[in-house]
Every structure is written in structure tokens, then in C-alpha cells.
Amino acid sequence: MSVFDHPEFDDHESITWFSDSDTGLRAIVAIHSTVLGPAGGGVRRWAYASDAEALTDALRLSRGMTYKSAVAGVRFGGGKGVILASEDAPKSPELMAAFGRAVEALGGRYVTAEDVGMTVEDMRLVREQTAYVSGLPPVEQSAGGDPGPWTAMGVFLGLKAAVAFARGSDDLKGLRVAVQGVGSVGMQLCRYLNEAGAELQVADVNARNLDRARSELPVTVVSPDDILYTDADVLAPCALGNILDADSIPRIRAGVIAGAANNQLSTEDDGRLLTERGILYAPDYVINAGGIISCGLEYHGGASEADLREAIHRIPERLTKIFEESRSGGRPTSEVADAWARRIVAEGAGA
Ligand SMILES: NC(=O)c1ccc[n+]([C@@H]2O[C@H](COP(=O)([O-])OP(=O)(O)OC[C@H]3O[C@@H](n4cnc5c(N)ncnc54)[C@H](O)[C@@H]3O)[C@@H](O)[C@H]2O)c1
Predict the structure, then answer these.
(1) 219-274 per-position pLDDT tens digit
(2) pTM (predicted TM-score)
(3) Which Pfam families match (predicted)?
(4) Most-buried pick from 70, 188, 293, 333 (CB within 10 A)?
(5) Which of 80, 91, 173, 321 is the catalytic position?
(6) Ligand 1 closest atom vs CA 224
């Protein structure tokens, strides 16, 4: 497996592979950049098809974290952990402790938090081994905790800004929103959308999460194979990445894409395909920054919940600026956001 020539390598500062024979832990921590601060980024536990797939995910996600924190003004660089889930390494307090020791071994260059497949309770176990962790139970800090609900708040506000830009009004009453994935973020987003009067179509591959959505809210359940292509006004991807590509984009019917999932575009070219189809795309790492804003304030300390809410309420303003720059320059929103992020990091490097 090539690393330095990997298409997603993008000058990562370091990539560390961890293994612990007692617990079966196998993990990768990719640190893309520490220019703007310690590399902040959650850890994802997922059953990857191969080590190569896990590496690709770690590299893409960690670069996304650099961009996300840069644009959101969070004092973090970018990094990401992935734990390779397998039957030989069941989730256990010991496995979490082993991951905590791995984070500690990086000496503070990487600050972890929860992502897909991880919980606040897992972070508490990680915290027993290292201080380089955020997203802890609220009792241990003032602002912060589980980043999921804060991410959902930012996505909701960002989705409204995207709808306002595309349709001239941010009134969601009667608007049809298709939500892919009703996990931590997707479910909370659905609650906000329902409150605002939107009509919800949802899909999930996890029956328990789907049942929760169905029992709590008036939703129409759509098959996971169809949710991207359903007849909706807004598509909110809140599952995994790599869903927007040359195959899926021509079939999407929604005019706005605004959701939480990281790395929604398969390649940079896919941003252009969306623009050509007239679909307004809210760049994922801009709209889903609520979680890292929360983790950043929690980690650096001294912030109140009011500070956190105020910071998250600035997400729509940033998105609108990106939409405007995209429209006036005829460039995809994803390209505009990437250019912003690179400029902020370059300025940080020169400071
Ligand atoms: N949690 C956060 O604070 C946060 C912050 C930023 C970005 N994100 C991103 O948002 C997305 C969701 O995060 P989360 O914390 O809600 O994770 P989660 O694991 O709680 O929820 C994800 C849901 O998506 C479902 N899913 C997976 N594949 C699917 C498919 N093909 N079709 C339909 N459903 C599918 C899962 O079953 C699960 O219910 C992820 O991409 C994550 O990286 C999360």
C-alpha cells in the first residue's frame, strides 16, 4: 500500500498505525495539519473492507478537519482517528483504554472526540488515559459534551440558509426534506425540521434508528437505495461520505443538498457536476462544523453554552457568503470553501 503517493496524501504531517495485541485494537491516526492548533478530529469506529480503505478514510477525513476548523475559526488543526472494527476486537472498556493510550502517545498533537460508532461514554474511557480528548460528558466541563446535537443545530441553521438562498425564503413549512441516516445528527436534525413544518422522508440501514424516527416523528420511510433520488426539495445526507459522484448526481432530484455527512463529494470534480445541474450544495465541512466548534470551545476551556450557541449561529452567514461567491464567480461552492480554507491555513503558517 503506497502512502506518500496516495491520492489523498496531501502532505499529511504524520500517519500513525497503532495495534494492541491484548485488546485487538487496530487504529490509524492521521494528522493533516497542526498549523492552526493541535489536530482536532473525532475517531470513527467502522468495519472497513481493508486496511487501505481505512487509510483512505482517515486521510480524507483528517484533511476535511483542517479545512473545517480553519473556516469555522476553531483553534484546531486537522486530524482523524479510525478504529478498524472487527469481531476479534469487540468494543470494550479495554479497547477504549488502548485507544486512549495511543492518543496519549501522540503527545497532544492530536485531540480526539466521538464520531460515527463512538459515544460520549467511550470518550470518558479514553479520558482515563489521556487529556487530549473532547466531547466528554457534560459533568466534566461547561460547554460541549456530545457534539452530535450541536452539529445538528448548525446543519439545521445552514440548511435554512441554503433554502433561503436557493428559493428566496427560509420558510421550511411544507418543504420536502430527504434525510439519509437518522443517527445522532440525522435524528436531531429531523426534530428541528419537523418543528419547522418540513415534511420528512428518511432512510437508515439500522432498524433501531429507523424505528426511533418512525415512532417519534411523522416520517415517510424510504429505502436506503432510493433516498438520494427521492422526489424532495432538499437532500440532507447524514450517514457516510462518498455519496455524491458521477453516478448519483445526475439522478438527484432535490435542488438543495445540505447535510451533516463528512466527505459527501467523491472527488473535487463532483462539486462542478452539482453546479452544472443547478443543485445548491452546502459544503459539508462548513455546514457540519457545529460539533468541532463545540469540541474546540470545550477543549480550550472557559466558554459558556451561550458562547457556543452564538458561534454555531454564525454558520449560516459563512455559508451564504460562500453561495454568493460561488454564484458571482461561477465556481462550485466546494471550490470556494476549499480556497477559503487553504488561504486561512496559509495565513496561519505565515503568522
Ligand atoms: N456527530 C457529529 O458531531 C458529527 C460532526 C460532523 C460530521 N458528522 C458526520 O455526520 C454523519 C453522521 O454522524 P452521526 O454522528 O449522526 O453518526 P451515527 O453513527 O450516529 O449515524 C449515522 C447513521 O447513518 C446510518 N447509515 C449508514 N449507512 C447508511 C446508508 N447507506 N443509508 C442510510 N443510512 C445509513 C447509520 O445506520 C446511522 O443510523 C457522519 O458522516 C459523520 O462523520 C458528525
Answers:
(1) 999 999 999 999 999 999 999 999 999 999 999 999 999 999 999 999 999 999 99
(2) 0.95
(3) ELFV_dehydrog (PF00208), ELFV_dehydrog_N (PF02812)
(4) 293
(5) 80
(6) 32
Encode the chain in three state secondary structure. CCCCCCCCCCCCCEEEEEEECCCCEEEEEEEEECCCCCEECCEEEECCCCHHHHHHHHHHHHHHHHHHHHHHCCCCEEEEEEEECECCECCCHHHHHHHHHHHHHCCCCEEECECCCCCHHHHHHHHCCCCCECCCCHHHCCCCCCHHHHHHHHHHHHHHHHHHHHHCCCCCCCCEEEEECCCHHHHHHHHHHHHCCCEEEEECCCHHHHHHHHHHCCEEECCCCCHHHCCCCEEEECCCCCCECCCCHHHCCCCEECCCCCCCECCCHHHHHHHHCCCEECCHHHHCCHHHHHHHHHHHCCCCHHHHHHHHCCHHHHHHHHHHHHHHHCCCHHHHHHHHHHHHHHHHHHC
Binding residue positions: 181-186
Is ipTM > 0.85 here? yes
Q: Which residues does the annotation place in the binding site for NAD(+)?
A: 181-186
14-133: CATH topology is Rossmann fold (3.40.50)
Ligand 1, atom 33, residue with closest C-alpha:
204
Domain boundaries, the chain: 14-133, 148-288+317-343
Lining ligand 1 with CB less than 6 A are 115-116, 147-148, 151, 180-186, 203-206, 209, 224, 238-241, 260-262, 288, 291
Distance from residue 21's CA to the centre of ligand 1 (Å): 29
Q: Is 160 one of the catalytic residues? A: no
The CATH class, in words, for 148-288+317-343 is: alpha beta
